[in-house]
């Protein structure tokens, strides 16, 4: 029996537990087995409030999760009670939120879980409780000992994008963009496409930073001084990188068919196209970790939490993609 997927609590005031309940309730027959790391009593209470017949089955070992999965949602107790109400984060829940992530990393690293899927966190609430990482990606990299190596990929059918700079102000992203950062992202992306997505000869499209990719320097010299040298270095390493390409013509359907992933220079350059193409079904993947990690490509949605209207599409896609990636890694090991 294949190991299950570990799903973290996320922000309990948001929609994470809600979409986990709904994914299990409506799609458990087509989903890989997973268990949620959280507070069983809080989860069962939420199911009752929503009127959803989801039995909760506490487990004391992740490896036990597949057995009850078809009849009850397995929950590994995080060891702390959750206090938040829907839409109202409580900083006192920060230890439980972070403990769930740490337990999941432990389980996947010791083979009890096949991969890690994280529900969205509310960073402002964690910051008030003393959290010092910019976000999930950086925290997971620290837990895994991956240093600064981990990068983010967003995935939906027909498009994969990798932002070279992530959660920084646009001005800082432009000022901090380097050839080395682009090369680093390109190398990790190429390796992941081969290992985790089973592509024998992946093609990377490298976006320019400026309108029209700089117009030969008349609209900015970053393409000439930063991006072109990165493309040349990637190609010298045997990676099929193409660019810099005008960002405004990279994402229509015909253009997307010419590459396997797009390296984008800043956050919104990557996330706007993927969220336009598949707002509900996009998946966040962390590359460069020693284990598979995926996440829904949306936030905590505090405004609609507890109402039973949140769609589980992105979580379902994240679970399915995590299982596929873990299967490929297992087959290739």
Write up what this structure looks like:
- The structure is a single chain.
- With 333 residues, the chain is α/β, with parallel strands linked by helices.
- The protein has two domains: 1-147 and 290-333, Isopropylmalate Dehydrogenase; 158-277, Isopropylmalate Dehydrogenase (3-Layer(aba) Sandwich), CATH 3.40.718.
- Helix content is 38%, strand content 17%.
- The protein is built from eleven helices and twelve strands.
- The protein has helices spanning 16-27, 40-50, 94-109, 123-128, 136-144, 170-176, 179-195, 222-236, 253-256, 267-277, 313-332; strands spanning 5-8, 34-38, 56-58, 73-77, 115-117, 151-156, 159-163, 203-207, 240-245, 261-264, 283-287, 293-296.
- Strands 3-4-2-1-5-12-11-6-7-10-8-9 form a twelve-stranded mixed β-sheet, with helices on both faces.
- Strand 11 and strand 12 (293-296) form a beta hairpin.
- Helix 7 (179-195) packs parallel to helix 8.
């Amino acid at each position: 029996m294949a190991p299950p997927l570990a799903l973290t609590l996320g922000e309990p005031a948001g929609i994470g537990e809600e979409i986990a309940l709904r994914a299990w309730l409506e799609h458990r027959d087509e989903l890989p087995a997973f268990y949620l790391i959280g507070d069983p009593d809080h989860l069962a209470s939420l199911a009752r409030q929503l009127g959803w017949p989801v039995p909760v089955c506490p487990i004391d070992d992740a490896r036990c999760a597949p057995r009850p999965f078809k009849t009850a949602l397995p929950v590994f107790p995080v060891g702390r009670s959750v206090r938040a109400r829907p839409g109202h984060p409580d900083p006192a829940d920060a230890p439980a939120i972070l403990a769930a992530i740490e337990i999941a990393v432990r389980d996947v690293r010791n083979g009890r879980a096949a991969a890690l899927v994280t529900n969205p966190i509310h960073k402002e609430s964690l910051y008030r409780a003393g959290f010092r990482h910019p976000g999930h990606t950086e925290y997971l990299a620290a837990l895994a000992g991956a240093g600064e190596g981990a990068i983010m990929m967003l995935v939906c059918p027909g498009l994969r994008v990798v932002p070279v700079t992530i959660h920084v102000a646009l001005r800082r992203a432009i000022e901090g963009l380097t050839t080395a950062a682009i090369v680093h992202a390109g190398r990790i992306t190429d390796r992941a496409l081969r290992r985790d997505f089973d592509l024998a000869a992946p093609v990377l499209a490298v976006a320019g930073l400026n309108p029209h990719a700089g117009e030969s320097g008349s609209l900015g010299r970053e393409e000439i001084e930063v991006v072109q040298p990165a493309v040349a270095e990637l190609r010298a390493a045997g990676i099929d990188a193409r660019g810099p390409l005008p960002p405004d013509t990279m994402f229509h359907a015909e253009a997307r068919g010419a590459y396997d992933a797009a390296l984008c220079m800043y956050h919104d350059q990557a996330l706007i196209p993927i969220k336009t193409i598949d707002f509900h079904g996009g998946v966040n993947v962390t590359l460069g970790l020693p284990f598979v990690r995926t996440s829904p490509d949306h936030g905590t949605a505090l405004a609609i939490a507890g109402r039973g209207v949140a769609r589980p599409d992105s979580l379902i896609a994240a679970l399915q993609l995590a299982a596929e990636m873990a299967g490929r890694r297992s087959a290739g090991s």
